[in-house]
Amino acid sequence: GAVVSQHPSRVICKSGTSVKIECRSLDFQATTMFWYRQFPKKSLMLMATSNEGSKATYEQGVEKDKFLINHASLTLSTLTVTSAHPEDSSFYICSALDRSRVNEQFFGPGTRLTVL
Amino acid sequence: GQNIDQPTEMTATEGAIVQINCTYQTSGFNGLFWYQQHAGEAPTFLSYNVLDGLEEKGRFSSFLSRSKGYSYLLLKEPQMKDSASYLCAVREDSSYKLIFGSGTRLLVRP
Questions:
Q1: Nearest-Cα residue of chain B relative to residue A92
Q2: CB-CB: which of A32, A97, A107 is closest to B43?
Q3: What local confidence, expressed as pLDDT, does residue A37 receive?
Q4: Cβ-based interface (< 8 Å): residues of A facing B
Q5: What is the distance of C-alpha A12 from the center of its chain?
Q6: At A16, is the pLDDT very low, low, confident or very high (cuts 50, 70, 90)?
Q7: pLDDT classification of B20: cutoffs 50, 70, 90
Q8: What are the strands of the beta sheet with B18-25, ordered from one edge?
Q9: Which residues in B lie closer than 8 A to residue A105 (C-beta atoms)?
């Protein structure tokens, strides 16, 4: 099956710093990737849709200036949490869409962000 | 608005059949997905329905009724390793983004 990687898997940072999370599709090209956030024992909440070569589309209530998304190539999307605060601590998961298999969205292993 | 409901928790006995229900009310419909997620891991794809009826895939089957806004995931002969969260997700339109339900935590006991 298709493989999606995320880096780093875990990150701990101080309040006020920025953190970049990478999402890569390893064996297919992904013109579209999605970023989700998941709080403990909760479901996935879609944050934004990342489109290669264009601006990301953010869901209602998600601050685009705080969660910067860059999709510069067909295999890489990055999410930067700017000026992170403890309430941003969460599990961030990306998924990538393989357009030849649109009925299977492939998820990365997730990044656990802890902001002190 | 969007509303996708699942039971919060369920328990099952090894070897019995377990059914996890999902009801949805969304502005559009372009497919329903079931994912399995173990704690701290990424969701893994289980099944996809876009037409009414039952889709079978090994020990997992999924049913859809679009007129009722209803789906269920059926797991035959559950094993303790199947203890996980099961997420129902709806694709509303051609944007391919998924709206997830709250998930059902399934505990399989011996």
A1: B42
A2: A107
A3: 95
A4: 4, 32, 34, 36, 41-46, 49, 91, 93, 95, 97, 102-110, 112
A5: 17
A6: very high
A7: very high
A8: B3-5, B18-25, B70-75, B60-65, B53-57
A9: 33, 45, 96, 98
Q: Return phi, psi of residue A41, to 5°.
A: 60, 20
CB < 8 Å to A36, chain B: 100
Among A100, A105, A106, A112, pick the best mutation site for testing chain B contact (most B Cβ within 10 A). Answer: A105
Residue B74 to residue B32: CA distance in whole angstroms: 14
- Determine the pLDDT at residue A63: 94
What is the pLDDT, as a whole number, of residue B42?
A: 86
Q: φ and ψ at A35, to 5 degrees? A: -115, 130
CB contact under 8 A, B40 and A45: no
Flag whether pLDDT at B1 surpasses 70. Answer: no
**Residue of A28, A29, A21 whose CA lies nearest to A78:** A21
Phi-psi region of A88 (alpha: psi -120 to 50; beta: other; left: phi over 0): alpha
Residue A53: pLDDT band with limits 50, 70, 90: confident
Q: How sure is the predictor about B70, in pLDDT bands with cuts at 50, 70 and 90? A: very high
Spell out the residues 6+ positions from residue B50 whose beta carbon is closer than 8 angstroms to its own.
Answer: A103, B30, B31, B32, B64
